[in-house]
Protein 1
Amino acid sequence: MTFSKKHAWLLIGVGIWNFFIWITFAKNLSAAHSRGEDHPSGYWIAHTVLIVVDLVIGAILATVGLRALRSAKKA
């Protein structure tokens, strides 16, 4: 499968956006935990898993975008 440069940049942008959003959310979640907000443990576990999964997805999208961009430059 081949991607155009604009598709490659879109994937890179979405990957970067994922990192920005989920790292910000992780900081906010950590601050809430430090303040002692009262939530069941399932809340903390679910959100932590969600953050990790979405950071992995962002890394995959950015990697695919970078590879596609390099491939487009060679062609």
Note: The mean pLDDT is 94.
Protein 2
Amino acid sequence: MSVPEKQLYYSPQEYLALETQAEYKSEYHSGEIFPMVGASINHNRITVNLCTILNSALQDSNYEVFMNDMKVWIPTAQTFFYPDITVIRNLPEFYEDRTDTILNPCLIIEVLSQSTQNDDKSGKFDAYRSIPSFQEYLLVNQYHFQLEQFSKQADEQWLLKEYDESDVKLQLVTVDLTIKLVDIYKKVI
């Protein structure tokens, strides 16, 4: 009895059909599907802390906050990613009228892990930058106080600010909000 050969290339529609029925999440990049690993307790705490802060501050504004089950489609990279946190301005724009895949993030936050940090810092950031609405990217280290903030400048360049002390405050660029790092890392460190 022969073993069926594993399919090497999937169309975006094939990926979405598989993802709808899958027991676990996977990301899609240029025809390939990559299973996602589970997140640690610190990863979850940081994500919940940030979502709570953002949702509370933005609830009466024209911004909306989504957690890690909302996909982002990046057409130029032919990629579907699941950011840890996504913020949109105004109404969500959906990929092919799917309510689980948005096109218009303005702020994306990724909580880094050993297995994802290289891709979050390079490949994903390269892809996210091609989205016209995308203005700000935060990379949060889950192991110690360290946060990198990239904000889009008028001339299509990105400004990097680094934070690595518990008593500093992060000033978001996309939304008018200041966050203490100690609040992001509550119950983590």
Note: The chain has a mean pLDDT of 92.
Protein 3
Amino acid sequence: MSKALITGASGGIGEAYAQRLARRGFDLVLVARSAGKLETIAARLRAETGVGIETIAADLGKVDNLARVEARLREDAAIDTLVNNAGIAGEGPITSADPDYLSDMIDLNIVAVTRLATAIAPRLAANGTGAIVNLTSVTALMPAHFTSVYPATKAFVLAFSEALAAELGPKGVRVQAVLPGITRTAIWEEERLSQFPAEMVMEVGEMVDAALAGFDQGETITMPSLPDKEDFDAFLSARDALRPNLSHRKAAARYGL
């Protein structure tokens, strides 16, 4: 039986992943800061599905807490799936941002994601099986239309996931980056959500169901809102077309050197 470790599992996207994976028969390790919320979710899912569920109360922005979860991923041979979901947003304009909050965001959105994936990857690669699912964001593709730091953290997660897929895929490990659009979770205040047209806001259950469908279809990058996959394929093809000219001995002629 497979076991999945899910971060940020006390609500929203993480809780939805816990529900869906429990229904698929996964045993679970749920990680979040709130022990009480985790236990409530775990008790309900145990009763509904009968799967084994453990909880770890941990703030992944704190070095010692993160180290505990890393150790679990390295040492628990039953865990074959990691869902890197924990993250924060909401920093506001850079001209008035709190530098300490930005550091906290980078620690959680980038450092924790990287260290947790690094903790489990060697074991999965050695076994030739398993999966790493990283929650990123469509803002990774549109940084000029959002705040400055949050999209940058999500762009890291997207690039990291693509590189992981290229390295680990041939070893039998699935890597998926999930890029939600605006999703009704606690990361958004209801007042802010109400400012968007209703057709732009996806319910969390539908988002996770689409992400899992994308995983089942073998996608490395899943955007639940994107109607035509060919549009993103064209973007990737245009990006790849730049590769032959990204590094030359001489500067481009347009610089007149």
Note: The chain has a mean pLDDT of 94.
Protein 4
Amino acid sequence: MIRRNPNGDRPQIHPDAYVDNTAIICGKVIIEQNVFVGPYAVIRADETNEEGDMDPIIIRANSNIQDGVVIHSKAGGLVEIGESTSIAHRSIIHGPCKIGSRVFIGFNSVVFNCEIGDGCAVRHNAVVDGCDLPPGFYVPSTMQLGPESNLDDVPRVQASVSEFSESVVSANIELVKGYKALSNEF
């Protein structure tokens, strides 16, 4: 479902993106080319700051927002997801936050109030809350990072993880093409 927010902002969705019919895209959302938005995802830009303004939620080209993901922002803060980034099933991305390009966010992970640099991987059931990650960091499954976390304890991404992330992006770009072709049958 594509709908306006109470301010009247309507999502801008590139014609070469695919948004599943069960997904909800609301308000000041920008979805670029070759983005896949899976079933039951919710991307909602509808809260405003004290001045009544809001920044958009931006999903850059070739990224994928998988089944059941929720993306929202507190008080109209910016959420930006870089190019060729995967947000895996049932993750929560809550702004304000910025996620770089070629990032993998694993199943059921929570990302809030932070910046995640290019090429990072946040594995399944991990939490990054108020802790900025420079490029190339690897957050293992179930790790929790907060404002007081010591990044010296966080490993760096290995080549095999980057290759896996790239394969997920490629698979989802193929899904965009496949589902777009199927939609022409009805």
Note: Residues 17 and 43 are 14 Å apart (CA to CA).
